[in-house]
From TrEMBL:
Gene3D superfamilies: TorD-like (1.10.3480.10). GO terms for cellular component: cytoplasm. This is Nitrate reductase molybdenum cofactor assembly chaperone NarJ. GO terms for biological process: chaperone-mediated protein complex assembly; nitrate assimilation. Binds specifically to the NarG subunit of the apoenzyme complex at two distinct sites, one interfering with membrane anchoring and another being involved in molybdenum insertion. PANTHER family: NITRATE REDUCTASE MOLYBDENUM COFACTOR ASSEMBLY CHAPERONE (PTHR43680), NITRATE REDUCTASE MOLYBDENUM COFACTOR ASSEMBLY CHAPERONE NARJ (PTHR43680:SF2). GO terms for molecular function: metallochaperone activity; unfolded protein binding. Signal peptide: none annotated. It comes from the Bacteria. Belongs to the NarJ/NarW family. Coiled coil: none annotated. The lineage of its organism: Bacteria, Pseudomonadati, Pseudomonadota, Gammaproteobacteria, Enterobacterales.
Length: 244
């Protein structure tokens, strides 16, 4: 599916090559039969508007959206396993799938990086690729909802992936469940994470005070994003409580 390659490129970190080859991307969008005309037009307009800005501005926007906090991370397993041990095994299993498909990865990205996963799906048959999108549809809906809350045009790309998957899950199905979720990309939230990590380190050294313990408890879980249950057969995405 060529459209998966296009969206993978747009979800990756913006660089000079994207600006240089934007006309080629637009030509591929015009040729695709994988999207209906309305969706294809929206994707083409995204490319035009995105590449109309200065590259440095788009790079800063990208980092602010995807690299600050965990809630909008493009690492798929972050939204399912967090830092649990299950994440490691899931990584190994996904790497096995890549190797079986003949893909050899360098050390630049983790295997659950969404653009990389989309590149993998693009090498499969259309039926297999859609099944792969169905597997991550709840994550896509969660990301789309959070990105919409941040008023970013990147939400369109996640919504188009949901369209390609053929599932009925939408960002709107998740939005209400996230109503009370605190954003983890604010300066206060990022400071809280840094301070808590410092306290954990001191605790490991055996020199944490009662005041520091109280501070740690006050911030514990304050910026942890909600996690989800990958059950696409349910009526809506199952968004669970924040993990400690």
């Amino acid at each position: 599916m060529k459209t998966l390659q296009i969206i993978a490129r747009l979800l990756d970190y913006p660089d000079d090559a994207l600006w240089a080859h934007r006309d080629e991307l637009l030509a591929l969008v015009a040729e695709t039969s994988e999207l209906d005309q309305v969706s294809a037009n929206r994707l083409a307009e995204f490319i035009r508007q995105f590449c109309a800005a200065e590259l440095l501005d788009r790079q800063a926007e990208y980092c602010s959206l995807f690299d600050r906090g965990r809630a909008t991370s493009l690492l798929l397993f972050e939204h399912v396993h967090g830092e649990s041990r299950d994440r490691g095994q899931a990584m190994v299993d996904l790497l096995d799938q890549y190797r079986a498909a003949g893909l050899v990865l360098d050390c630049k990205e983790l295997p659950d990086y969404l653009p990389l996963y989309l590149e993998y799906l693009a090498t499969l048959t259309e039926v297999e690729a859609k099944a792969g999108l169905v597997d991550i549809a709840p994550i896509l809906a969660l990301l789309a909802a959070r990105i919409k809350q941040r008023d970013s045009h990147f939400a369109l790309l996640l919504e188009l992936l949901l369209t390609l998957s053929g599932v009925e899950i939408t960002a709107e199905d998740v939005t209400e469940k996230l109503r009370n979720e605190s954003r983890d990309d604010t300066p206060q939230a990022l400071d809280a994470v840094w301070e808590e990590e410092q306290i954990k380190f001191l605790g490991e050294q055996g020199c944490i005070s009662d005041e520091e313990k109280a501070h740690s408890q006050r911030f514990a879980g304050a910026v942890a994003p909600q996690y989800i249950n990958l059950d696409v057969n349910s009526d809506a995405v199952n968004v669970g409580e924040s993990r400690p």
